[in-house]
Amino acid sequence: MSSETMENSGTSLVKGSKRQRLWKKVKYQLVEYHMLPGYLRDNEYIVGHYRSEWPLKQVLLSIFSIHNETLNVWTHLIGFFLFLSLTIYTAMKIPKVVDLHTLHFPDVLKKADLHKLQEELLTSLPSLPNLPDLHRLREELKTWHILELFYNCLPERFSHANHTDVCVLMGTGRQCERSMKEDVANIIAPLMLTPITRWPFFAFLGGAMFCLLASSTCHLLSCHSERVSYIMLRLDYAGIAALISTSFYPPVYYSFMCNPFFCNLYMGFITLLGITTIMVSLLPVFQTPGFRSIRASLFFGMGLSGVLPIMHKLVMFWDQPEALHTTGYEILMGALYGIGALVYATRIPERWMPGKFDIAGHSHQLFHVLVVAGAYTHYRAGLVYLKWRDLEGC
Ligand SMILES: [Zn+2]
């Protein structure tokens, strides 16, 4: 009997809108683990608060109600919006700094040299060494956004001589004259090298957004029917494979961009491995419990293969602080994903107190938060790579 027929017969039996609402409430109440159909049984330590085979409308609306998947849906939905914001921020903010490079610059200053820039500024602004905030300026000279800072501020020296130093130090002064700004940009911008391509970084951001949105959708809709659950699980696997594959792109590309052989080798390898993992997880036979460990090993192997290019990077650039800095982030990311996988596999803490963590605090929610934290760590590492390559080139 379809849900509509059941509702119609319900309306004819009980009259009045109040009784009708009560009927619906009873029909779509949360159930316990032992009442679930086989395909929805996954974790016996989560005892209650399950949605089971609800109509699509009720399933979609359940994003705003409390059940044992609410936090699983929201942790990755919030993660998705976090990465969407980071993508928009990166696309808008970071090219703004390097757009200045498209101007014409004197050949004399082709090579990036921040120490030289600092020296030049100190000699061209003789009043600066006497200021108490000189140390802060020196620190700011080392930061990535230095070009933007000076682009905005330095010309005020020419138009409002008395306020120059304050303007430089405080990072304010937005009303600089256009021609003056361009003059200064022409002097300073050549000290930075031409920016390198951003596509590997955006590929990672795209992979992260796809993974988080696919996971969130999977947790919301899987309880609808066996068919939807089957499709959603595959979408979830594809999302994980996409996140792992695209996570390789920034470190591999920016580490080996000056060495095309290794760059192509690693990029090709991880892309092939990612596509293979997605194809393999689409095969119906891989859904069977017997293949669960093989699927898990495939994802684990993908992640583990990242150790090789990272070690290679360390050997090649052992004397560069950026290589150590990014490796630090990569170790942190590995630890966050590793703890996430451990929590996921051991089903801690709900196995200690079954039923106590149904709504909040069970392992899958902790796993989701750790995945978002790991991906964010990787985003920060990506910014270090961009800064490094923008300044150093090959
Ligand atoms: Zn999940």
UniProtKB/TrEMBL annotation:
InterPro entries: AdipoR/HlyIII-related. It holds the Pfam family HlyIII. It is found in: Membrane. This is Heptahelical transmembrane protein 4 isoform X1. The gene is LOC107424953. The keyword Chloroplast does not apply. It comes from the Eukaryota. Keywords: Membrane, Transmembrane, Transmembrane helix. The chain crosses the membrane at residues 71-92, 201-223, 235-253, 265-286, 298-315, 327-346. It is a multi-pass membrane protein. The keyword Transport does not apply. It comes from Ziziphus jujuba (Chinese jujube). Belongs to the ADIPOR family.
